[in-house]
């Protein structure tokens, strides 16, 4: 499959979405609807339809598990039944259930909640019907984006609405601890997976066999989050390869004819957890998911969350994707349960994972608020006069044109009405000031006594928190737009600082920055060039750059240049500061110390107020992305001792990279001041 | 059952067998389809547009009775409108359709001198230019072959063959051995780019039973003897080889050896490689054979296995010493109904594990089970199923799903008490699998239909439907997924190619200790979709790729020929491929056996 084509492909702007709550709003009785006779379409029809307990039974009695138990029994001189009991317990911890009663009941509750707090749940219904009609012949895997807890509940609700069998959903163990919630999720098809740092080999063998079982003998669709966890930043995270490898194993072993992956992009007008995310990004520890927390979150019923958008992507057939690059016959000799994936197969998986993620990213629907956020963010960064509604409308209108030309899909009937709706939905974040200008809402934050053990980095002052939280929340809504503009912003940053360049040099600089930011704005290495070419075309078309005598120079679209510049700047500052701190750290340094020092430096810079430093620069997600990226470049080496993560720093290489990066840093004045500052602090 | 021959009875050896099949094959057999001229499916439409389908002739028990359900089935499954006039075949080929024979006059003269019968008649040549693949039959009916033999020769003994091979080798003429003409691998087709003259060496006039060895229970036969002739003649003397491939009415002993054939009753009698005790093959370098007629020997690599499966590419098999057995005293059919395919396969696995296989054991999938019902003259799917058992019992009491039911057919051979015991054991185990014995009639019908089913394709071709079968062998633990995946792949590929009406079904036809054999039937309506042979090849290629991905083999008994060449190197490894090529080079340095089977020769 030619993946590069899909990276070039322009988004179809003429997408069609239907509000599937509309029927609920109109019908006389939601109760009749939730209790209707269901004809759910399963993914993979089996001669004998399996039950949840059959799955557990077959896993326990699979040759793989049985042989392992015999081995353990002999090695430890303990009766096999002892381990069988353990396996049963593990299976009870993992396995999903199905209770149609609970599903209907939940369907009822969700209907009521959604009708109350949202203005609609939109979906490209034609695609759902198409996928439904394709189902039955092989495992189907729904792969939704993960930006809110609401994702999987709404996915199941969507399936319930469209009569698709509710998927077996891979969920994190943290849910299981929530009283009542764990059971309820399990009853609606969730199965549970421990975090990967757990290294209980019996557990993982059983878990893998359970997935194998669901894939080969199960009939339900599967659902999992390829990013592994909720994105707190509202932009895509690097894909994880563990679960998808387990899912693909039966395909590589030719035990299923194909595996269809359905990328699903779920966008929210307003994210349920926006406030929580802002705190987490700044390093305030995440409260453990407890049921009381859940009930507290029922407060949301008083709020309004606008619209939710499901974009169901074109299914990706594993068989077509891998084509002839995978020879499944290599597993023909020796029993399958004694075989594992080959290195070649393992290395074939990441491109598919990235492709699914790419399809998610292309699928996201942007709303007016994303454009409002981008505009306001830019205004604050420039310290410009705040816009009144008319000015805002013009800016958003203009941005909408730009974004659409870049392939983004923006859901909007009427810009002004859209903005007014934003002011209602996001009244906790934006409002009119006394001059009738649109501005950020300021709420005094008092943190009280903080358990410093739970702090992930530096303890920010109340003042900085009060100032920063609105900016970070706003950035959550800027972030989804960056997928479309970051490549332009990088090209611009290069030409702005280095002047006229030929294409080769431009590619060289672009490639340096793009790969440094490959985890921040997820892109697989092999796609960089394709994306570069396409971004160049757009940059010329939008007059950000111009091409003269085969060289690239600045274009004249200053307004857009300013916007691009400002939207990328926080990321440049964060990365540069991380490197600065690393340069001044000991050879081996704990992650927490690094993060705290970075935040401390930036906190000072923000307090300085002389020059606008965006509070989003403080966010740990970006700082960690930088550390991970440096790890991937072998400049840092991860060391984990007693559950504490440290980095070993290759300072020579770091200096090289830092010098290259600093070329593009808008102002170095801050950094040098900070450096002095830090050295002072170190002395204290 | 014939009386056992008395010991005193002197049989004159060699036995000159009068074959059922005449030297001019086309007088008895279809020149453009399968089997006998007088046996075929025909469609009658009366003025009221009532359709009646029946099978002609009395050779098979299904003959001359109306098959009332076939027409509706054809419409439902394959969108065939039987009221439409059928697409007829072109007439017998004429001289003008094909290039003149390239055989030099001098060679013909030498043949004359050797006293070897030969013909350059175009029909004789066309009849031996092909086997029974879809491509072959479709070409016969609608167009012309790119290349046909230049002359047909009929040697009558081993020495004739030696002379012919020498003559060809000296004059650099290509020889393609031809036996029963039932190959479904493209093995007898002439390589299209062959510039040299091509001789088709028809072995059918070399069909004597040279001698019988009652002490050791072996018979020495010439390779051209046809299955049914061999069985008939041996039967007269109270013997059988027990080798009964589905094509045995028409296929030859030499062909069996050359393709590594497998018979329906291999559980009792063995496959051809188990039956062959000694074999002679005439190569360009001389005759390959052994100096003894022993049950087994430890003497380096067994060169019988160079001959077995050589597909005419290394030489001509002329004489075979084959095992024979006394005719069984008792022969009994049986059948068992299973709730679904998977249970049926599990049962077979169990029977194989306990080595309780009767002479034959086969499991038809649901679609084939239904098709078998369709070919019944009586009314209703279930009217005759299972002596005395009614649909109600099966579906309501036993809870079987009509769309999942599978039927197993059984054939027992041996002493009466052994057969009884075997039946008892089998049916007992079947019960443990939740299956129900379904009587002898169904079993017998199943085996009879095996012979008739080959005729269906000729009818289908008249209504824009093409059909073909393909098979594989597979380890037990992968049988069910292979079956399922292949059907899925074919279904997907049909959709992709725009094929809306198709059938893809299967049966498990053989069991072994370590695996089984799955036999697929594929048919589709190609109206408006372009060349059906090209379409079919696409489908079969995808199917074979999937078979191999799922742990199946390139072929269990059909052979490689030209059709499955592309999977040969990977099947045997590169070393294996080179080993074959060096054997080829040693035995046939001039490549006169340029069949291009197994490997495309580099000419």
UniProtKB/TrEMBL annotation, chain A:
| Keywords attached to this entry | Acyltransferase, Membrane, Transferase
GO CC list: endomembrane system; mitochondrial membrane; peroxisomal membrane
Query: Membrane topology per the record?
Result: Peripheral membrane protein
Q: Where found in the cell? A: Endomembrane system
Q: Which GO terms describe its molecular function?
A: glycerol-3-phosphate O-acyltransferase activity; glycerone-phosphate O-acyltransferase activity
Q: Which Pfam families match?
A: Acyltransferase, GPAT_C
**Taking every annotated instance into account, which residue ranges of this chain make up the domain Phospholipid/glycerol acyltransferase?**
140-269
- Give the top-rank taxon of the lineage listed in the UniProt record for this protein: Eukaryota
Q: Name one GO biological process term.
A: triglyceride biosynthetic process
* Principal subcellular localisation of the protein: membrane
Name the family the entry cites: Belongs to the GPAT/DAPAT family.
Q: What is this protein called?
A: Phospholipid/glycerol acyltransferase domain-containing protein
Q: Identify the taxonomic lineage of the organism of origin.
A: Eukaryota, Metazoa, Ecdysozoa, Arthropoda, Hexapoda
From TrEMBL, chain B:
Name its cellular compartments.
Peroxisome
Biological process terms from the Gene Ontology for this record are: ether lipid biosynthetic process
Active-site residues from the entry: 519
- Which positions in this protein are listed as binding FAD? 259-262, 311-317
**What Gene Ontology terms describe where this protein resides (cellular component)?**
peroxisome
Instruction: Give one GO molecular function term.
Output: FAD binding
EC number of this enzyme: 2.5.1.26
Positions of the FAD-binding PCMH-type domain: 145-327
Whether Ribosomal protein counts among this entry's keywords is no
Task: Please give the superkingdom of this protein's source.
Answer: Eukaryota
Query: Which pathway, metabolic or otherwise, does it act in?
Result: Glycerolipid metabolism; ether lipid biosynthesis
Q: Report the catalytic activity.
A: a long chain fatty alcohol + a 1-acylglycerone 3-phosphate = a 1-O-alkylglycerone 3-phosphate + a long-chain fatty acid + H(+)
Locate the site labelled Important for enzyme activity.
Answer: 362
- Its primary localisation, in coarse terms, equals other
The record's annotation in InterPro entries points to: Alkyl-DHAP_Synthase, FAD-bd_oxidored_4_C, FAD-bd_PCMH, FAD-bd_PCMH-like_sf, FAD-bd_PCMH_sub1, FAD-bd_PCMH_sub2, FAD-linked_Oxase-like_C, Oxid_FAD_bind_N
Q: Where does substrate bind?
A: 457
Keyword check for NAD, yes or no.
Answer: no
Cofactor dependence: FAD
Q: Which UniProt keywords apply?
A: FAD, Flavoprotein, Lipid biosynthesis, Lipid metabolism, Peroxisome, Transferase
Q: Which family does it belong to?
A: Belongs to the FAD-binding oxidoreductase/transferase type 4 family.
Instruction: Tell me the function of this protein.
Output: Catalyzes the exchange of an acyl for a long-chain alkyl group and the formation of the ether bond in the biosynthesis of ether phospholipids.
Assembly information from the UniProt record: Homodimer.
Q: Could you identify this protein by its name?
A: Alkylglycerone-phosphate synthase
Recorded source organism is: Callosobruchus maculatus
